[in-house]
Each structure stands twice: as C-alpha cells, then as structure tokens.
C-alpha cells in the first residue's frame, strides 16, 4: 500500500515537471506559434508590413516581446505577421 502511494506520488510529480518543461520549451517557439507561411513571394507592401510588424522585429526588442506575450495570453490566433 505504501509502495503504491509512493509510485502515484512520483508519477504525479513527474507529470507536473514534464508539463512545466514542455510549456517552457514552447514559450516562444516560432514553429509552434506560427506554423503557416503566408506567401512564398511577398509583394512590396507585404515586405514592409513584415519588416514593421513581423515576428523577428517583435522578438528583437523587449517591448516587442511584451506585445507578443500579450497576444499569446489573450489567445489571438495570429500572433504577428
């Protein structure tokens, strides 16, 4: 009985730790958050939009990372361009 309790406790602790590690691993993973590519040959206006509002531009500054985190926490489908 004691051994079963210990095994269940260890299993719960392992699952919790695994969940935390997986969430931290995918916090800003572009492949998970932004899996689709809009277009392979962007138009000039799209290039400007991506350069101003794109993922790499947002990730390059602390305020941009704050914008992305706000959109992630709000549950937006499109996080950035």
UniProtKB/TrEMBL annotation:
Entries under InterPro entries matching the protein: Ribosomal_bL34 (IPR000271)
Any one GO biological process: translation
GO molecular function annotations of the record: structural constituent of ribosome
KW DNA-binding (keyword) present: no
Gene3D superfamilies: 1.10.287.3980
Entry keywords, A to Z: Ribonucleoprotein, Ribosomal protein
GO cellular component: mitochondrial large ribosomal subunit
Keyword Ubl conjugation annotated: no
Family classification: Belongs to the bacterial ribosomal protein bL34 family.
Protein name: Large ribosomal subunit protein bL34m
